[in-house]
Design goal:
Layout: H1 2-23, H2 26-34, E1 38-49, H3 54-58, E2 68-80, E3 86-89, H4 91-94, E4 97-103, E5 109-111, E6 113-118, E7 123-127, E8 149-154, E9 162-176, E10 183-190, E11 202-205, E12 210-215, E13 225-229, H5 230-243, E14 253-257, H6 259-263, E15 270-275, H7 280-283, E16 291-295, E17 298-299, H8 303-312, E18 318-324, E19 330-335, H9 343-352, E20 354-359, E21 362-368, H10 373-377, E22 384-388, E23 391-392, H11 396-406, E24 411-418, E25 421-428
Antiparallel strand pairs: 1-2, 1-4, 2-3, 3-7, 4-5, 6-7, 8-9, 8-11, 9-10, 10-13, 11-12, 12-13, 14-15, 15-16, 16-17, 16-18, 18-19, 20-21, 21-22, 22-23, 22-24, 24-25
Amino acid sequence: MKRSVALVVVLGIAAAAAAASLRRTPVVDVVQRVRGAVVNLNARQVVTVRPRSIFGDLFPEFGAGGPQVYTSQSLGSGVLISPDGLIVTNEHVIEGAAEIKVRFVDGKSEEAEVIGSDADSDLAILRVRSRGRPYLPLADEDDSMIGETMIAIGNPLGLENTVTVGVLSARDRTVTSPDTHRVYTDFLQTDASINPGNSGGALVDLDGRLVGINTAIIGDAQGIGFAIPAKRVRRVVDDLLRYGHVQAAWLGMFVANRDERSRRGEVAGVEVTDVFPSSPAALAGVRRGDALLAGNGRAIAGRDDFTTLLAQLAPGDQASFELTGRGGPRTVTMRATRPPRDLGEQVLQRFVGVELAERGGRVVISRVASGGRAADAGLARGDVVLQVNGERVASVADIDRIVARQYARSSLLLVIQRGAFAYQLPFPMSSSPG
């Protein structure tokens, strides 16, 4: 009798142990290890609005009072990535914030300092004074596999430390934000739920590695989430800490899709539409009309693939391309550099056909090349350049800075003022045919 009772007890303990082992899945282990590094961010924005009315405009002395100040708050997530209090989040989470409160998993809060941000990458870095808190370093290897399990940890709708699980659906996605119309490249796509408030949170694999920073840029997406890969995050963080801004990589070649020619049976890839003299591409022997087929071991099927590769490069990095053209297929290697300081002036002169000057705090056209695109568009000396790619400019240096950051675009959008009128004019980022 005693033996049978003992056997029942042993079997009961074994069954309980088996049940416990089934519950403690790899996901549970990872979440328990890394959740302390994910924080809640509360960003407070202060907006000043000056009341306007017809009565106030006509009789300002009787109009409404002074400016009215409004405050708004946005909730998001962040990840502690180092023992010295460095936090990574999305730029759109802290944009315009006057105060950022960080709430840790233990319930304690602290104000954070903004160290740097980059809207083009939608990344920002913050710092808190606390030391010794759990942190999660960025993954060293960019080797995530399609179909492997992914864990998203964040604060959707303010619900702290929420965990969702899915798989890696795709890599190198190009996504356009419906709100800002910015184009983001090389995103990781996952079906782990990422909702407003998840932005800036962690995307982790089953080894507990931080493989991406979640971003909820498409609020009404169902079953589709996006994350910025760790390789890109590391590059942005390093540049922001070292230079205060992200360093663009310059190869000196411009490309266009070859879809129509591919359908006619010609080679796929992208066509090189222009090569700047003395650029890395020119020194490597790339010529206008060549077709780029692959870069750094990955196929290039369109401009998005080429733009993604550029986004992953930093000045000093080496890039190899498989291409074909006059002389047949070949492989070339080049080392990326920083863009020329006067790249904006060179681009407008080469692709648009204008030269610029500064007068009275404005950028004006000082010369229009005969037979160029600007002449065809009717531009003339004295016209004022108000904006480039949606950003206001007050100096030639502003144009150089904008173009150096966005030279991989397919077109350049200028807003030109003449008299009381302003005109939007797009120009292709390539030399005129012929």
